[in-house]
Write a structure and sequence with these properties.
Elements (H helix, E strand, L loop, with lengths): L2 E10 L7 E11 L4 E5 L6 H7 L8 E6 L2 E4 L7 H7 E4 L12 H11 L4 H14 L16 H13 L5 E5 L7 H17 L3 E6 L2 H7 L2 E6 L2 E6 L1 H5 L2 H6 L6 H13 L10 H15 L2
Parallel strand pairs: 3-8, 3-9, 6-7, 7-8
Antiparallel strand pairs: 1-2, 1-4, 4-5, 9-10
The chain binds adenosine-5'-triphosphate.
Adenosine-5'-triphosphate binds next to strand 2 and helix 1.
């Protein structure tokens, strides 16, 4: 789904003495099928921005176009239910929202709310539990008898059960150990690719942004500070440092390597494995 954000402003507690401007003049176009990482310090406005994408927050000024739905400041009431079906949010610690007696009932809750029959919702639950890498036998268990990692997968399955076109992930790996983080990020990456999703990942990890995103948007004090392809963003190391961010360690290594070796390797590979391969190829070419 194509997303277009135009001159978006948001103030909390508008019109009260406690009014607080959280977003200023955000302009951002996200093409259908993009994997966008939204990065920035605590309080920079990331959560406020994503909550506009499925109508949880209303613009104070400006507009957001989500496919054919336009959400405008002062606009008329929209059909938010169908928008929320198309744009699913996985909140931080989504497992805290599990509440039903069984995993199956929890996953069926969303589709049933949209009028889907019990039989179809059951089939959906079986389909999405497999998508998140859990066995069907989990469906009859209580979500509260599962491990933390399994509970998170069940919560993600509940969002997938709505067949979203846009998946919005608010720090989906928060609180997981390093292995769990990689597993969940790999899961989102394969869901993105296999289901032609538009994915928006809020993260504090430049490493994850570099590994998975086609584009990176950097927020700072409620403004869109930088937006571009990872290669472009990582060429702006000084600008990133000014807002307390830095390029991933692999990019830092490559920049130092280029300075010291005199080899001017292009900034296109971001994982340790890709970078090692790039450096080794260049050394072979040079005859070392
Ligand atoms: N419900 C609220 N009421 C008033 N102010 C709020 C509310 N939620 C957020 N804010 C303020 O809006 C600004 C942006 O907050 P937001 O949560 O969007 O930032 P963030 O980048 O998502 O931070 P984090 O990385 O900590 O989640 C901050 O100054 C924050 O204090």
């Amino acid at each position: 789904m194509e997303i277009s954000i135009n001159r978006l402003e948001h103030s909390y507690m508008e019109g009260t003495p406690f009014e607080r401007r959280a977003l200023h003049d955000i302009n951002l176009d996200i093409a259908d099928g993009t994997f966008l990482a939204l990065i920035g310090h605590t309080g920079s406005g990331k959560s406020t921005l994503i909550q506009h994408l499925n109508g949880l927050l209303k613009p104070s000024a400006g507009s957001i176009k989500m496919g054919s739905t336009e959400l405008k400041a002062g606009g008329k009431k929209q059909d938010l239910k169908s928008l929320r079906k198309k744009a699913g949010i996985v909140f931080q610690y989504p497992e805290h929202q599990l509440f039903e007696e069984t995993v199956e009932k929890d996953i069926m809750f969303g589709p049933r709310n949209f009028g889907v029959s019990v039989e179809t919702a059951r089939l959906t639950a079986a389909r999405v539990i497999e998508m998140v890498g859990l066995p069907e036998s989990v469906l009859s268990k209580s979500p509260f008898d599962l491990s933390g990692g399994q509970m998170r997968r069940v919560a993600i399955a509940g969002v997938l059960a709505m067949n979203p076109e846009v998946l919005i992930l608010d720090e989906p790996t928060a609180g997981l150990d390093p292995a769990g983080r990689v597993e969940i990020m790999e899961l989102f990456n394969s869901l993105h690719e296999r289901n032609n999703l538009t994915t928006i990942l809020v993260t504090h990890s430049m490493e994850d942004a570099s590994k998975y995103a086609d584009e990176i948007a950097v927020m700072h004090k409620g403004e869109l500070y930088l937006h571009g392809k990872p290669t472009d963003i990582f060429s702006e190391r000084e600008a990133l440092k000014r807002v307390g961010l830095d390029v991933p360690e692999t990019v830092q290594f490559l920049q130092k390597w280029n300075e010291k070796s005199g080899l001017n390797l292009a900034l296109t590979k971001f994982t340790v494995e890709e970078l090692a391969e790039q450096v080794s190829q260049s050394l072979k070419k040079r005859g070392n």
